[in-house]
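sry for the spam today, last one i promise. C-alpha cells for design, 303 residues
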C-alpha cells in the first residue's frame, strides 16, 4: 500500500459531502470522469474499494468512512500547521533562546519575556544566565539566539559574525555608608573618592569597569574586598568596610544605613546591548524579542 495522495483524499471528502460524483466535480471544477478516476486511483493506492454501486449512484464503502475519518484528522493538522506557519512568519510564534549575565535577567530579560507573553503568547522563550565570552560561543554554535552583554574589553560585540543592537547605557552609582563625609555633598565626582577603601566585584565586567573608571579619574583604587553578590556588597558598605560602584541596572534591595548616590558628572557606565547571529535579526520572532528588550531597557536604568 502506498501513501495516499492528499489531493485524492480531498476528492473523496468532497464526494462524501456532496453526495454525487457530478456535484463533487462541480465543486472541484473537475469533470465527473476525473472525479471517478481520482477515487478509483486512491482505492488502488490503499488496496480497498472506496465506492460501490447504489442504483444509478455510487455510495461510499465502510473502508471509505475509515479513510475519511483519518483524512479529516490529517486535514485538521495541515490547517493547524498553516496557521502556525503564518503566525511564525509574523513573529507571533516560534522559539527563541536568550542568554544574559546575571544583572540583565531581572532587569531586562524577564520583563521582556513578560511583555511577550501578553503580546505574543505563542512565542516561546528559554532563558539562561551565561556570562561573556561563553555566551557568544553559544550564540555562534546556535545553542542560543540572543545574547545580552555590555561593552568591556574582550567581549565579542564587534565580531562580524554577530549583529549588535544597543539597548541602553547603564551608569554606575556609588554606595556610601551612613555618616559618610560626602553623603550630602551637593557635587560628587569619582575623583572625590580617591582615598576610600573600595569594594569591587570579584571578576568580570563590573570589576573591570570599576577599576578602569578609577584609573581614568586619576587614582589607583585601594581595593580591600572582592564580593560577587550585590546584596552582600551593600551589607559590607553598611558595615563601613568600603564604598562600592553599583550598576543602576542591578537595583539591589535597599538597605538601611546605605545610600546609593548618582555622580554629578562623568559617571562610569557601560553600554548594554543585544547580539544575534548576523542575518537572523530579520527573523520575525527574533525581531519581536529585540523589540521587547528595547522597550524594557528604556525604563531599566531610570534613576
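last one done:
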Amino acid at each position: 500500500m502506498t501513501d495516499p495522495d492528499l489531493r485524492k483524499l480531498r476528492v473523496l471528502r468532497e464526494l462524501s459531502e456532496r453526495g454525487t460524483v457530478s456535484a463533487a466535480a462541480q465543486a472541484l471544477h473537475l469533470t465527473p470522469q476525473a472525479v471517478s478516476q481520482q477515487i478509483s486511483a486512491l482505492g488502488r493506492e490503499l488496496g480497498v474499494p472506496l465506492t460501490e454501486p447504489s442504483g444509478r449512484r455510487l455510495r461510499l464503502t465502510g473502508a471509505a468512512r475509515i479513510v475519511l475519518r483519518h483524512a479529516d484528522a490529517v486535514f485538521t493538522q495541515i490547517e493547524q500547521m498553516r496557521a502556525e506557519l503564518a503566525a511564525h512568519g509574523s513573529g507571533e510564534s516560534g522559539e527563541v533562546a536568550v542568554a544574559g549575565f546575571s544583572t540583565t535577567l531581572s532587569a531586562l530579560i524577564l520583563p521582556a519575556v513578560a511583555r511577550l507573553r501578553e503580546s505574543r503568547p505563542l512565542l516561546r522563550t528559554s532563558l539562561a544566565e551565561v556570562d561573556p565570552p561563553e555566551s557568544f560561543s553559544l550564540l555562534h554554535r546556535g545553542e542560543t539566539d540572543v545574547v545580552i552583554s555590555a561593552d568591556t574589553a574582550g567581549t565579542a560585540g564587534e565580531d562580524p559574525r554577530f549583529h549588535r543592537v544597543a539597548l541602553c547605557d547603564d551608569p554606575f552609582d556609588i554606595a556610601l555608608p551612613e555618616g559618610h563625609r560626602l553623603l550630602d555633598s551637593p557635587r560628587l565626582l569619582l575623583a572625590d573618592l580617591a582615598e576610600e577603601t573600595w569594594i569591587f566585584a570579584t571578576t568580570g565586567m563590573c570589576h573591570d569597569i570599576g577599576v578602569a573608571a578609577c584609573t581614568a579619574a586619576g587614582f589607583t583604587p585601594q581595593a580591600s574586598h572582592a564580593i560577587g553578590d550585590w546584596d552582600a556588597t551593600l551589607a559590607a558598605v553598611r558595615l563601613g568596610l568600603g564604598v562600592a560602584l553599583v550598576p543602576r541596572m542591578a537595583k539591589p534591595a535597599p538597605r538601611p544605613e546605605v545610600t546609593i548616590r548618582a555622580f554629578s558628572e562623568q559617571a562610569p557606565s557601560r553600554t548594554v546591548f543585544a547580539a544575534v547571529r548576523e542575518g537572523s535579526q530579520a527573523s520575525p520572532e527574533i525581531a519581536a524579542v529585540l523589540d521587547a528588550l528595547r522597550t524594557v531597557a528604556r525604563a531599566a536604568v531610570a534613576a
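The chain has three domains: 6-89, 93-168+271-300, 170-269. ok im logging off now
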